[in-house]
Amino acid sequence: KMKGSDNQEKLVYQIIEDAGNKGIWSRDIRYKSNLPLTEINKILKNLESKKLIKAVKSVAASKKKVYMLYNLQPDRSVTGGAWYSDQDFESEFVEVLNQQCFKFLQTKAETARESKQNPMIQRNSSFASSHEVWKYICELGISKVELSMEDIETILNTLIYDGKVEMTIIAAKEGTVGSVDGHMKLYRAVNPIIPPTGLVRAPCGLCPVFDDCHEGGEISPSNCIYMTEWLEF
Amino acid sequence: MTQAEIKLCSLLLQEHFGEIVEKIGVHLIRTGSQPLRVIAHDTGTSLDQVKKALCVLIQHNLVIYQVHKRGVVEYEAQCSRVLRMLRYPRYIYTAKTLYSDTGELIVEELLLNGKMTMSAVVKKVADRLTETMEDGKTMDYAEVSNTFMRLADTHFVQRCPWVPATENSDPGPLPPAPILVISEKDMYLVPKLSLIGKGKRRRSSDEDATGEPKAKRTKHSTDNKEPIPDDGIYWQANLDRFHQHFRDQAIVSAVANRMDQTSSEIVRTMLRMSEITTPSAAPFTQPLSSNEIFRSLPVGYNISKQVLDQYLTLLADDPLEFVGKSGDSGGGMYVINLHKALGSLATATLESVVQERFGSRCARIFRLVLQKKHLEQKQVEDLAMIPAKEAKDMLYKMLSGNFISLQEIPKTP
């Protein structure tokens, strides 16, 4: 009898080990091992008390628990990484980092512009590598968690999607500080290429009832209060 | 044409030309191409009035005619051309900035009259300018002619197509409507006139063909009692050239915003050099060598050749990709990437609309989706770093405003 349960334990342990640091859900363990639920639960409790496995709450579905080997670091997809503390997305923290990175890049670009050197030097000194930004943020000490260079790169990417920063990738010799696989990512603060476009500077571009407006209707250009106000500059 | 566009055309025609022209014009916009009698019948206006209205519309390039088989002439309205009337003030203002008051008035006269001879324009503009000058001073015809020629050289005004002079004295039966032609090299050819008294008859065209607008002839016969030296040579404003100018301005200011003043001046110089040599719909300008650009920089712009080369290299390497390097001869051959530039400007305009309408976080999602083409809900949340609930809300707001579309793909098993 003992041997039987040992074999089952070994099987479950194997399945959990195979799942690596992503962990595996108890239901999936059942499918893989074909053992009844009650048995699985008994074995899992056993292994947990022997400190061979542990349960980690998954950030993707807060009710789900995944099991993994005790001494493994759970993968980021499970814990949410640096941006999650206890399943909550720390949007304020992300926002602060976003602003700080941008300010750093902005100042760098401004200093480069004001240095009035020849244009090549001006441009090159307005760039900062992801490593430089990472070092700056770490030294600021605003983060309680340790942030990796990749974490900073995800923040810098959001600045790209904000249209405030542009990125170039250059080839870098292996061993250069901040280079990954022979490449380095450089970031630079930029201005938008056009001012806010004409349509949205007139009231119509932002009007909530744009689609209902037509001459002769209840909402029309001639009796529009926004238009009257706007024309009275 | 949408209902709103037709309504706008109707209002424009009414304001500029009156009710009858408006009726005929709108009818043609709605129904497409039609012959004279059908127009008269369908709109219930007399044949005479329809003819007059069509004259006005053709004079202003708003209606074109075509001879179909069996000799039927059909008239077609150009709705987009009618809408261009909204831009007249901007065209006039552009002429003012480039060629001062003289240029402004020349373009204004041409736009208001549709087509005019050069002598008529010069006389009219000189009279108008003299009126605004101090007592005793007058505007010399020569100065106005000069400005007119500069406008023609830079292609802002062009000659109207005309009836080619026939070789044989007996042309045979006249076609139902004159076929007007113009060759590329004649389009900007200014007739040699000395407009201080006498002028030479340069070219006479077949004015007596049927269908020639009566309104044009009566207007000119009342204006000058003396024989007009350039009779039959009519000029019109070249709207496409103005559009090209606006395009160039947009590109230059984009470069100024993204880089600096000097870079934008270099780009402006390159565009100015390509003004006439590159067709307006081309994807790239002609390659320009760094030496040529250096020679064409505006007088007083003191940058050394070396510095210019540096700027050109920077422009060519910039992620904007407005300028490209096409070769190494002559110190480096550079082109302006027109299609890319226009595409980037269009994208920036879209992003600006989303930003002002929905807020900067929505703008972030919009730019993200624009770059990555297709994304799942979860990917949007992760890459934009916006909490799931807010991201979902924003995506649906943009979805209902038709800025984003949704496509379901079956999950791969």
TrEMBL record, chain A:
Name one matching Pfam family: RNA_pol_Rpc34
> Record's GO cellular component, any one?
nucleoplasm
Output the SUPFAM superfamilies linked to this UniProt entry: Winged helix' DNA-binding domain
Give compartment(s).
Answer: Nucleus
Record keywords: DNA-directed RNA polymerase, Nucleus, Transcription
Q: Does the keyword Transcription apply?
A: yes
Q: What is its main location?
A: nucleus
Determine if Transmembrane helix is one of this entry's keywords: no
Q: Name one GO biological process term.
A: transcription by RNA polymerase III
InterPro entries per the UniProt record, alphabetical: RNA_pol_Rpc34 (IPR007832), RNA_pol_Rpc34-like (IPR016049), WH-like_DNA-bd_sf (IPR036388), WH_DNA-bd_sf (IPR036390)
Q: Which family does it belong to?
A: Belongs to the eukaryotic RPC34/RPC39 RNA polymerase subunit family.
The record ties this protein, via PANTHER family, to:
RNA POLYMERASE III DNA DIRECTED , 39KD SUBUNIT-RELATED (PTHR12780)
What name does this protein carry?
Answer: DNA-directed RNA polymerase III subunit RPC6
UniProtKB/TrEMBL annotation, chain B:
Per the database record, which ranges form the DNA-directed RNA polymerase III subunit RPC3 winged-helix domain? Answer: 350-412
What does the record note on quaternary structure? Answer: Component of the RNA polymerase III complex consisting of 17 subunits: a ten-subunit horseshoe-shaped catalytic core composed of POLR3A/RPC1, POLR3B/RPC2, POLR1C/RPAC1, POLR1D/RPAC2, POLR3K/RPC10, POLR2E/RPABC1, POLR2F/RPABC2, POLR2H/RPABC3, POLR2K/RPABC4 and POLR2L/RPABC5; a mobile stalk composed of two subunits POLR3H/RPC8 and CRCP/RPC9, protruding from the core and functioning primarily in transcription initiation; and additional subunits homologous to general transcription factors of the RNA polymerase II machinery, POLR3C/RPC3-POLR3F/RPC6-POLR3G/RPC7 heterotrimer required for transcription initiation and POLR3D/RPC4-POLR3E/RPC5 heterodimer involved in both transcription initiation and termination.
Kindly state which keywords UniProt assigns to this record, in alphabetical order.
DNA-directed RNA polymerase, Nucleus, Transcription
Q: Where in the cell is it found?
A: Nucleus
Please indicate which superkingdom the organism of origin belongs to: Eukaryota
UniProt similarity note: Belongs to the eukaryotic RPC3/POLR3C RNA polymerase subunit family.
Pinpoint the RNA polymerase III Rpc82 C -terminal domain residues.
146-344
Recall the GO molecular function terms of this protein's record. Answer: single-stranded DNA binding
At the highest ranks, the source species' classification is: Eukaryota, Metazoa, Chordata, Craniata, Vertebrata
What is the name of the protein in this document? DNA-directed RNA polymerase III subunit RPC3
All copies of the RNA polymerase III subunit RPC82-related helix-turn-helix domain together span 7-66
Give the coiled coil ranges: none
Q: Where is this region: Disordered?
A: 199-229
Cite the Gene3D superfamilies for this sequence.
Winged helix-like DNA-binding domain superfamily/Winged helix DNA-binding domain
GO terms under biological process: DNA-templated transcription
Organism of this sequence: Neovison vison
User: Which InterPro entries does the UniProt entry name for this protein?
Assistant: POLR3C_WHD (IPR055207), RNA_pol_III_RPC82-rel_HTH (IPR013197), RNA_pol_III_Rpc82_C (IPR008806), RPC3 (IPR039748), WH-like_DNA-bd_sf (IPR036388)
* GO CC terms in record: RNA polymerase III complex
